[in-house]
Amino acid sequence: MKISVRGPNTKISKKELRFATEYMTGLLLSKRLMKNLYVEIISHPNLPKEGGSEKLADCIWLDEERKPREFRIRLNSARSKRMQLLALAHEIVHVKQWALCEMRSDFKRKADHTIFHVKWKQDYVDAKETHYYDLPWEIEAHGREYGMYARYMGHKLENKIKFHNP
Q: Structure pTM?
């Protein structure tokens, strides 16, 4: 797995972000698939607001392949280390969803306008008409983020892994 980390972050080191990304991704994906992934982590102190509230993180795929293998995760570095690691776990769930083709974006024409649909497993979901917390991919990401974070922190503690502050 290739991981690039850049941007200013006063709460979590680049070395730990790389380590956490690889560890958390390994909880969800096979080693074979991980070998073919590229994940870029960007710490950003001022992510644009979304829906009037401060955004914790976001994730997009960078390649245009049917099965994407290149991803960018932006983390709000103004937030606490704990919140950044939780947000990282959440976004890694989305990486898994795209890499395994569980989720695909699609635009469909309906009458005079374009509707943003997302193919989730075998169904299409109108993302504009569905509340954020009712979107199946968000239900999974929110449901897994804390467990992934807890396992990561437990792994660090068990193995006495420490990182220096940036």
A: 0.91
* DSSP result, the chain: -EEEEES--SSS-HHHHHHHHHHHHHHHS-HHHHTT-EEEEEEETTPPPBTTB---EEEEE-S-SSS--EEEEEEETTS-HHHHHHHHHHHHHHHHHHHTTSEEEEEEEETTEEEEEEEETTEEEETTTS-GGG-HHHHHHHHHHHHHHHHHHHHHHHTT------
Residue 16 has what pLDDT?
98
Give the CATH number of domain 2-158; options: 1.10.720, 3.90.70, 3.40.390, 3.30.70. Answer: 3.40.390
**pLDDT value at 1 more than 70:** yes
